[in-house]
Amino acid sequence: MSAVALDVAAVRARFSALGRRLAFFDGPGGTQVPDEVIDAIASYLRDSNANVGGPFPTSRRTEALVAGARRAAAELLGCSAEEVVFGANMTTLNFALTRAAARELRAGDEILVTRLDHDANVSPWLELAHDLGLVVRVVDVHDDCTLDLGDLERQLEERTRVVAFPWASNAVGTVQDVARLVELAHAAGALAWIDAVHYAPHGRIDVSAINADVLICSPYKFFGPHLGIACVRAELLERWPPYKVRPASESPLGHRHETGTLAHELLAGFVAAADYLRSIGFDAIVAHERELGERFLGGLPPSCRLYGLPTMAGRVPTFAFNVEGRSPREVAEFLGVRELAVWHGNYYAVEIMERLGLADGAVRAGIVHYNTAAEVERLLEALAELA
Q1: Domain span(s) for CATH 3.40.640.10 in the chain
Q2: What is the overall mean pLDDT for the chain?
Q3: Model's pTM, two decimal places?
Q4: To 10 degrees, the CA torsion angle through 199, 202, 203, 206?
Q5: Is the domain defined by 8-26+281-386 classed in CATH 3.90.70.10?
Q6: Which of 109, 195, 281, 383 could form a disulfide with 166 if both were Cys (CB 3.0 to 4.6 A apart)?
Q7: Are strands 160-166 and 110-114 parallel, antiparallel or unpaired?
Q8: Does CATH number 3.40.640.10 belong to domain 38-277?
Q9: Which among 43, 113, 131, 167 is positioned nearest to 354, based on CA atoms?
């Protein structure tokens, strides 16, 4: 056990949703939210609901909220407040930003994606390839579901314009050496475009430290509301002509790439989620999740085939597996009846499922810091019973 202890009972007391027998191992598809996030959303709608730009108190409070949300995102992700862009969700935001970036691309330019990507960081580039005659190449993985850096280096060429990759796989949990990937992309003259959706609830992010060009994440994966957030290097935000309505403000920089009225109540919820994470601390989160992950891996019945790394080294506690003789749906339904929430299918991780030959996908169980050792034991016992 790490010296950094997490008071799980105190954590769970902050989530009304956790006051039931149902064990939530569905975090990779969206986490539960603490009550303070719910309260922040409701409080905004009760006390401050207005559009920006009005000479009256609720509008001014909304403007202060938006500015505060940019600061909260900047602190959480390690960029400047000017570099923050908000959107409806990661996928919508990524389609918008890739199209802004595409104004600098020409037929024959190449985009590298990986077998570990969620399709939200693949299909936007595939659609652009269709529209503009770009070339999209896929970087392969080793059999243990770690990225093949040799394959990446072989595919980097003079025409490579973007290297798009996930910080952590939403399917098999593999964590990338993001600093190295950014370095390789930049050495080839390409942008480093990071999907941090799955990594965000599991570890600290510092965009400036790794020198990323674009990083996108989703608060509903880290105990907040449904929203998309991007950090985009200021020079790019200034350079890319945005898709926007003509009267929209040109400042702050990130706002140039935001369309329509922001979901102000969700920004209030996001700020509360960022405050919540700060109150817990990632040192405690990482230590607790590592312990539970090792417990799960150590107790997985022999009838279960795990896809990906067999220890917690180099991964987050997201586990894809199948049970011998059972379909992924059958396993998920069996566990659901026993009040154990897991996912089945491909979870939009199309490339890795194809690479693993899993036409029906796999079962996915994800651990976050509000899970308990007792819940993990219940899951292992149910899998043993199924076997």
Answers
A1: 38-277
A2: 97
A3: 0.96
A4: 40
A5: no
A6: 195
A7: parallel
A8: yes
A9: 113
